[in-house]
């Protein structure tokens, strides 16, 4: 086994702190041929689909990868922009804005890069770039406000797998969640308030989160509780009472029971209960993507209107808006405590000086 390293390492290089922002990932193009490898990588992850491997291999390769890529490609086509996938573009913009904000506050010592858990740019490449630029302390910040095994757990696995092949590991920190961070709650609540200022209020505010199999919750995954916590705190910030908001779960996949209530079924049933004006917000997504733009913005709107709904408004994700970046910078500064306190300077002794003093390489 040969571990990878940087033999030409320069002792004069200033040690830096790296912040690796990540999100889920996206195909290279909204085409069937790009969806197949993307979905294969994503759905082969045992953190995402917890089914005995051999059985799942047959279902995935025999059925799902023959049907889903075409269907998903059609959905991706409706959200794709000239520059590419919305999730990728927002994540890039978030990382760039975060770098600008942190450089303004802390100078050159903090380097921000971004990566996707599945597809490109990949996590191993981003870690390589950061280490090459002198990062000796690494903070990984997956942009999932709530922790779940399929998202945060899987991101940790990818980082850890990358580390197993490296010679020199950095100090390492990992943000598992920020579902109840006052800065995050305030940023989401403010975005809803701004929407209300422009459009007025509806009868009900719906918090819709990506779902996962109910079994994961039963086996101890905190995701469901963390989603409810975010809803509760945002609702409290907005002064909403219990009947004025609700939490539901979207993006069901497969036949198994997922977290309930399901967003689509909820929207289909609300008009019959006399609720025909709703606003939907998705604080489990830090950036707009297929699941928000197409599924919430389009598909679920149709369900609601066809069921007799009259007013349906989707409140966008925080994306790279200023309040979000300010919150992320606060979160990073908090996470870097102890690391930032130490003045980050170049080592006092250069390799040449050390060798002159009799050290061996
Ligand atoms: C099959 C199981 C899946 C689990 C469990 C799951 C959890 C989960 N996902 C997100 C965030 C996103 N998911 C996105 C797309 C997406 N998710 C699944 C499946 C599961 N997700 C699939 C198959 C897809 C691909 C699209 C499709 O074919 O329907 C995205 C959007 C990506 C984009 O490019 O826009 C996000 C974001 C969370 C937070 C989560 C937590 C439990
Ligand atoms: Fe998903
Ligand atoms: Fe719960």
From TrEMBL:
Q: Which SUPFAM superfamilies match?
A: Chelatase
Positions binding Fe(2+) in this chain are 210, 291
One of the protein's GO biological processes:
heme biosynthetic process
Q: List the subcellular locations.
A: Cytoplasm
Q: Does the keyword Metal-binding apply?
A: yes
The record's keywords, sorted A to Z, are: Cytoplasm, Heme biosynthesis, Iron, Lyase, Metal-binding, Porphyrin biosynthesis
Can you state which reaction this protein catalyses? Fe-coproporphyrin III + 2 H(+) = coproporphyrin III + Fe(2+); heme b + 2 H(+) = protoporphyrin IX + Fe(2+)
Pathway listed for it is: Porphyrin-containing compound metabolism; protoheme biosynthesis; protoheme from protoporphyrin-IX: step 1/1
Single annotated GO MF: ferrochelatase activity
The entry's cellular-component GO terms read: cytoplasm
Q: Which Enzyme Commission number(s) are listed?
A: 4.98.1.1
Residue span of the signal peptide, if any? none
Q: What does this protein do?
A: Catalyzes the ferrous insertion into protoporphyrin IX.
Q: Which HAMAP family match?
A: Ferrochelatase (MF_00323)
Q: What is this protein called?
A: Ferrochelatase
Question: What organism does the record attribute this protein to?
Answer: Parahalioglobus pacificus
């Amino acid at each position: 086994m040969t571990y990878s390293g940087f033999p030409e390492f320069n002792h004069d290089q200033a040690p830096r702190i790296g912040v690796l922002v990540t999100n889920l990932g996206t195909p290279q193009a909204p085409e069937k041929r790009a969806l197949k490898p993307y979905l294969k990588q994503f759905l082969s992850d045992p953190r995402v689909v917890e089914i005995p491997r051999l059985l799942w291999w047959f279902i995935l390769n025999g059925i799902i990868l023959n049907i889903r890529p075409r269907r998903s490609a059609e959905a991706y086509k409706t959200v794709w922009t000239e520059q590419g996938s919305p999730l990728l573009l927002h994540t890039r913009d978030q990382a760039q804005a975060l770098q600008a904000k942190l450089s303004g506050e802390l100078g050159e010592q903090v380097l921000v890069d971004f990566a996707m858990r599945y597809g490109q740019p990949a996590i191993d490449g981003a870690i390589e770039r950061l280490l090459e630029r002198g990062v000796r302390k690494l903070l990984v910040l997956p942009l999932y406000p709530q922790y779940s095994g399929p998202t945060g757990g899987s991101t940790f696995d990818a980082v850890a797998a990358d580390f197993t092949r490296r010679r020199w590991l950095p100090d390492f920190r990992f943000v598992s969640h920020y579902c109840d961070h006052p800065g995050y709650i305030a940023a989401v609540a403010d975005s809803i308030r701004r929407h209300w200022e422009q459009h007025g209020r509806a009868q009900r505010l719906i918090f819709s989160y990506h779902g996962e199999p109910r079994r994961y919750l039963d086996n101890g995954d905190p995701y469901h509780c963390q989603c409810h916590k975010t809803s509760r705190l945002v609702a409290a910030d907005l002064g909403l009472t219990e009947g004025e908001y609700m939490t539901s779960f979207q993006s069901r996949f497969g036949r198994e029971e997922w977290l309930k209530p399901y967003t689509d079924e909820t929207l289909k049933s609300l008009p019959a209960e006399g609720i025909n004006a709703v606003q939907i917000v998705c604080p489990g997504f830090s950036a707009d993507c297929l699941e928000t733009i197409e599924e919430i913005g389009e598909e679920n709107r149709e369900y609601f209107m066809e069921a007799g709904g009259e007013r349906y408004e989707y409140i966008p994700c925080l994306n790279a808006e200023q309040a979000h970046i300010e919150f992320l910078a606060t979160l990073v500064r908090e996470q870097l405590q102890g690391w930032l306190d130490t003045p980050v300077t170049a080592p006092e002794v250069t390799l040449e000086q050390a060798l002159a003093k009799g050290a061996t390489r």
